Amino acid sequence: MRQPLIRTAALGCILTGSYGYYPYCLDGPIVCPFRLMTGLPCPTCGLTRAFCFLAHGRIADSLQCHWLGAPLFLFALVCFGVSVWDLVSERDVVGEWWRAIDRSVGTWVWAVMAFQTARLAWLFLSGQALSLMVRDSLPAALLRLAGLI
User: Fold this and answer.
1) Please, which of 13, 41, 90, 134 could form a disulfide with 45 given CB 3.0 to 4.6 Å?
2) Nearest to residue 4, comparing CAs of 67, 66, 85, 92?
């Protein structure tokens, strides 16, 4: 009973946090260590904003932030509903789903890595990578602070 309760609480926090964090996610600080160091997006960069946009019904904006945001948010929403039902009926349907997902995690990892490879290739080929690195990375900020760039 403890694990379904923790899972339900975690999913509830993610979903309500997505709704409440919305105005701040637009201009908040960069918290991704990869993006902070390189200025380039990591495979999950944009998911927080995508979840926040979806919680407010802004589907097109969500898809612009990250293409996995909508399916993951929908999955979290369904899992939350079923998890609440699991608590009431004392079953563990969501736990069975997670075990099935664990068996296919390799496929998901490869899909996300393929997406990231395509995303970085597009950034470099379009010439945007260098400007992102100079604008958003911590080393570039330190160099600007020292007056070196």
Assistant:
1) 41
2) 92
